[in-house]
Specification:
The chain has about 400 residues and is of the alpha+beta class. The protein has two domains: about 5-145, Beta-Lactamase, CATH 3.30.450.40; about 150-400, PPM-type phosphatase domain (Phosphatase 2c, domain 1), CATH 3.60.40.10. The protein contains eleven helices and 17 strands. It has helices at about 5-15, 25-30, 70-75, 115-135, 140-145, 150-160, 210-225, 230-245, 325, 340-350, 355-370; strands spanning about 40-45, 50-55, 65, 80-85, 85-95, 100-105, 165, 170-180, 185-195, 195-205, 250-260, 265-270, 275-280, 285, 310, 320, 380-385.
Length: about 400
């Protein structure tokens, strides 16, 4: 019987004494404890197009395509993978909570032993948390995940973002951002406090450092207002005043939302932003109302306070919020990607029962490909699913069950 206990305990005792650069070697040294000859960490690059090996000295591995390899299938499906023609090698998704960060390759002559799967999964959970814990103390993980030099504006924005995916028994929220290395204006945030999930999606005007500086102010002002206990209207007013004070000639569009996860009651302010799509029973049924307030930074142009739209979600409902970089993307014939194409894409993804993060990854990849890999604007999308506990969990939202 294969047991991961000894490997996990050894890593728990040893890893804190090493730096991020030591992780690959430590994990490789734990291999014999689960009857493996090799264990290799692969991390998803920023674009989530490739899996890049974090190698111990002496090992040789190539980067692997997420789209076309068995390792990629483990990443996209969140399920263990093993090839019939290579039975000694298995691939296990690496998850931090419910955020997928890569895969673990385990090479073992006991790969067909049914107890190895459980041990490998247990070890993968611990390795993922070690990576999350140790990565902040060095740059090896960041360097590995970058295929291109990252611009300073993008460095600022990525440093602001929460984990791309978060899930509980009744909620899943996941988001994605492109272009990875040169973003500047789009940013998002979320927080679960008690029974209320707060979500903010922002699109600042301009590009480069000025846009990312405004994005930094906007998300910081949002967090400050939320943590001070302001309601949704006063939160919007607070952010608006900060933008006008510090960047008087700029503005940001925004979606600010609060969802009561007990009742499904949604409150939303749309500050000059594209309307979010409401999805139900595997299809997009309508767009939520458009702007209920002026863009943040322009509130002084009206005496009206921001208006809150209220919506009663049904169990299993999903919301897709996005920035105009998604729908405004144009192909070589200058035809926009548009809302209709967006709705069609999401409907097909829902019918395919893809995990929510994979839906977002494929959506952004489709938008990038539509514009021939050259986006004119940041393209950001956020997917929120409400599935209270009394509703059976479908595969699309069942990320919570895959976490530790």
């Amino acid at each position: 019987m294969v047991d991961a206990g000894d490997a996990v305990r050894w890593l728990q005792l040893t890893a804190p004494r090493g730096g991020p650069d030591d992780l690959s070697q430590l994990v490789a040294r734990a291999a014999p404890a689960i009857g493996a000859s090799e264990i290799v960490i692969y991390l998803a690059d920023y674009a989530q197009s490739d899996l890049v090996p974090l190698l111990d000295a002496g090992l040789v591995r190539d980067r692997l395509s997420i789209e076309t390899t068995l390792a990629g299938r483990a990443f996209t499906s969140l399920e263990l993978q093993c090839a019939a023609d290579d039975p000694d090698r298995i691939w296990i998704p690496l998850l931090v909570g419910c955020e997928r960060i890569g895969v673990l390759e385990v090479v073992s002559p006991a790969a067909e032993d049914p107890t190895l799967e459980g041990a490998a999964r247990e070890l993968a959970v611990h390795v993922a948390h070690l990576l999350a814990n140790r990565r902040a103390y060095g740059d090896v993980v960041e360097r590995l995940r970058r295929r291109l030099p990252m611009q300073v504006a993008a460095e600022i924005v990525w440093g602001l973002l929460p984990p791309l995916t978060f899930a509980t028994d009744d909620l899943v929220i996941t988001a994605i951002l492109e272009p990875c290395y040169d973003v500047g204006g789009d940013v998002f945030d979320y927080a679960l406090n008690g029974d209320v999930l707060s979500v903010g999606l922002f699109d600042t005007c301009g590009h480069g450092i000025r846009a990312s500086s405004l994005a930094s102010l906007v998300v910081s002002a949002y967090r400050n207002a939320r943590r001070c206990g302001l309601d949704l209207v006063d939160t919007a007013i607070s952010i608006d005043r900060w933008v006008r004070s510090e960047h008087p000639n700029m503005f940001a569009t925004a979606l600010l939302a609060e969802l009561d996860r007990r009742t499904g009651r949604l409150h939303m302010i749309n500050a000059g932003h594209p309307g979010a799509l409401l999805l139900r029973d595997g299809k997009a049924i309508r767009e939520l109302p458009g702007p209920t307030a002026l863009p943040l930074g322009l509130g002084h142009l009206t005496s009206r306070r921001p208006r809150v739209h209220e919506e009663n979600l049904h169990p299993g409902d999903r919301l897709l919020a996005y920035t105009d970089g998604i729908t405004d993307a144009r192909n070589e014939d200058r035809e926009q990607f548009g809302v209709d194409r967006l709705v069609d894409f999401v409907n097909r993804a829902l019918n395919d029962r893809l995990p929510s993060p994979e839906t977002m990854r494929r959506l952004v990849r489709a938008v990038v490909a539509y514009q021939d890999d050259e986006l004119d604007d940041d393209a950001t999308a956020m997917f929120l699913e409400w599935r209270p506990p009394h509703t059976p969990l479908a595969h699309l939202g069942d990320l919570a069950a895959t976490g530790p």
